[in-house]
Amino acid sequence: MTAPHTRPTLTLGPVLFHWDGPAWRDFHFRIADEAVIDEVYVGETVCSKRQPFIEPHLPEVIDRFTSAGKRVILSSLTLITLERELRATRDLAGQDDFLVEANDLAALRHLAGRPHAVGPIVNVYNAPTAALLAQRGAQVICLPPELPANSIRQIASATPQVAFEVFAFGRVPLAISARCAHARARGLHKDNCQFVCGQDPDGLRLDTLDAEPFLAINGVQTVSHACQSLVEDLDDLVAMGVRRFRLSPQRCDMVAVAQIHRDVLDGRLKAMEARASLAALYPEAPFSNGFLHGVVGAAWVEGRHRLPR
Amino acid sequence: MELICPAGNSAAYREAVEAGADAVYCGFRNETNARNFPGLNFSRDEMAAAIAFGHSRGVMSFVAINTFMRAGSEQLWFEAVDDAVTAGADAVILADMGLMAYTARRHPAQRIHVSVQAAAASVDSVAFLVEAFGAKRVVLPRVLSLAEVRNLTHQAPCETEVFVFGGLCVMAEGRCSLSSYATGLSPNMNGVCSPASHVRYVPQGTELVSRLGDYTIDRFAAGRPAGYPTLCKGRFSADGRVAHSFEDPVSLDALGHLEELRKAGVKALKIEGRQRGKAYVAEVVSTIRRALEARPEARPAILSRLSRVSEGQRTTAGAYDKRWR
Questions:
Q1: Which of A141, B129, B138, B276 has its CB 3.0 to 4.6 Å from that of B280, i.e. a possible disulfide?
Q2: Is the Cβ of A181 closer than 8 Å to some Cβ of chain B?
């Protein structure tokens, strides 16, 4: 599709957390106006009950991105069990105005034969699976965050027809359930959740009994407490054939986060300095890159243990 | 409804057959299956012998090759499928789409069952797997309510199989990296969740602390039985409130819903527990077999004896009961 020396693409992932409608809109407006982001994933991927909050703002957000020359990709729901969720996914996959990111097999079914993207929660662990999806129309695949570098290298080199993306910044989506742990933590049930997840726009921190921060609850989804950052691995990932880097929105200055990644990718900023700047921008959590390095996902592997090319 | 029973070794396989299984599921002794525990599973010869024994008794064998192929080592998974086919497996239970495509292409006559790890939770997901790979049956995730199981089974273009007894995953299966976040090893990549290799019990004052990797999962007062630190059954603190944040340390028991599952058109009932010993398998399988053959009103008395074998002595009907959410 593109030659290896092409400038890597910086993407903004879908907002995983439940932000209220106007905050969600204004966040995206600012990204559209100011951020060095090339492509943006838009849509509710975690809980269909949140969809009514962002739907009124979708058209204006999409317009703003389009006017700013940023490509919009519409993200589908991750766990589909209800009839109305199925209908919404069919409708989304049926439209031809925007590329759709499939986050579930149901979306893949309806996108077959047409260009589409595949999200990080679809299980692409090897090249035969990537090739199969490419044959069915996948142009972009965001690889699962738990994949180690060896796998990424294998998959990217064996499947050059796909533009591969990795989860470069943000709390990692680790699990999703039909049960809502956020409601449970507030003594509520999912059906009567009162949208309590909206009180924690960066996730509800879960500590171990030793008072050590461990995970964060985001409605029916569980994310890492640590913020994954591959900022020191960007060059290695580009060399492996990764062409796209996803920045997942957290409650911090994402315009600045994007600029730092762009500067590193373009050779204007050293990775170590970039990491320090990111830490200042997002002090809420430590950084992790353990998944990429094939160790405990929560771990941070120092720069001196760089990946073998 | 078929009764699908677990076997982690040849002895458990024989017990399951004797106890009334319609089919036994098992895996090879490597990372190709999602119960890749030390001392468990089947060599090629053991698998062939088990399948032949099953066939001599009219019992089917399903071979679980249900982890995701490690990039660059796909041959290990391809060979597992080839060998399962050669050994006469009545079905292979698969999760990886690349492996399903390989199987459909190389062994078009082989029956493919979709593992719960493939995360097919809706009729469209199931239809995708049937259309793309010719899947004949899908094992449904333990996140669906009874009504959802009924709807899905009614509309699905293939058979459905559901878990009724044993371990309970709180998270959608095949989409959970909690274990690798804490230990580096995951169900999808390594066939293990909260692996025993990373578990420690550490005395602290009068308490016993259960740890997984570097993380405390629970604490137990002196004299209380210390549970296994499965990550999603641990106790954590949110805003200073300590709770089993995801789920209590319970196991699944949906046997109170046998009649609803039958009416829903579910083709097969699955018992979790390939890591269990042969005595457990014999007890659980024979009891559920007797219950299935009894009149519905006679079942509770028969099934009550199973409460003794359940993990932590406490059970839940899980997501089948919609209030669980």
A1: B276
A2: yes
List the single residue in B71, B124, B322 with the smallest CB-CB distance to A106: B124
Residue B148: both structure tokens together = 């959802």
Cβ–Cβ pairs < 8 A, chains A and B = 221
Q: What part of A 189-218 touches B (C-beta under 8 Å)?
A: 189-191, 204-212, 214-215, 217
**Cα(A42)–Cα(A30) distance, integer angstroms:** 14
CB contact under 8 A, A85 and B122: yes
Residue A218 near residue A183, CB atoms below 8 Å: no
* Nearest-CA distance B274 → chain A (Å): 24
- How would you list the strands of the sheet with B199-204, edge to edge? B199-204, B207-212, B215-220
Q: Which residues of A are annotated as a binding site?
A: 47, 180, 193, 197
Taking contacts as CB-CB distances below 8 angstroms, the residues of chain B near A222 are 171, 178, 246
> What pLDDT does B142 receive?
86
Angle between helices A127-135 and A149-158 (to 10 degrees): 40
Contact B144 A132 (CB under 8 A): no
pTM passes above 0.90: yes
Query: Does the beta-carbon distance from B70 to A181 stay under 8 Å?
Result: no
**What residues of chain A score a pLDDT lower than 50?**
1-4
Tens digits of per-residue pLDDT, A216-247? 999 999 999 999 999 999 999 999 999 999 99
Give residue B265's pLDDT: 97
Count Cβ atoms below 10 Å from residue A135 Cβ, excluding itself: 12
Q: Is the ipTM here above 0.90? A: yes
> What beta strand segments (E) does chain A contain?
9-12, 39-42, 71-75, 99-102, 116-118, 138-142, 163-176, 204-207, 213-218, 221-229, 244-247, 287-288
Task: Show the domains of chain B with their CATH numbers.
Answer: 2-168+250-324 (3.20.20.70), 178-243 (no CATH)
| 3-state secondary structure at position A272 | helix
- Among candidates B127, B175, B213 on the partner chain, residue whose Cβ is nearest the Cβ of A175: B175
Q: How far apart are the C-alpha atoms of B122 and B149, rounded to whole Å?
A: 9
Distance from CA of A48 to the nearest CA of B (A): 14
Minimum CA–CA partner of A85 in chain B: B122
Report chain B residues whose CB lies below 8 A from the CB of A147.
Answer: 71
pLDDT score, position B324? 76
Return d(Cα B20, Cα A223) in angstroms, integer: 43
For B272-287, how does the pLDDT look when each residue is reduced to its tens digit (9 = 90+)? 998 898 999 999 999 9
Give the model confidence (pLDDT) of A146-188 as tens digits: 999 999 999 999 999 999 999 999 999 999 999 999 999 999 9
Tokens of A221: 């989804």
Contacting residues of A for B213, CB less than 8 Å apart: 296
B5 is in an annotated binding site: no
Question: End-to-end distance of chain A based on CA atoms, in angstroms?
Answer: 23
pLDDT given for residue A76 in this prediction: 98
Chain A residues whose CB is inside 8 A of the B323 CB are 189
Domains of chain A plus CATH, in order, are: 9-172+227-285 (3.20.20.70)
Three-state SS at B113 = strand
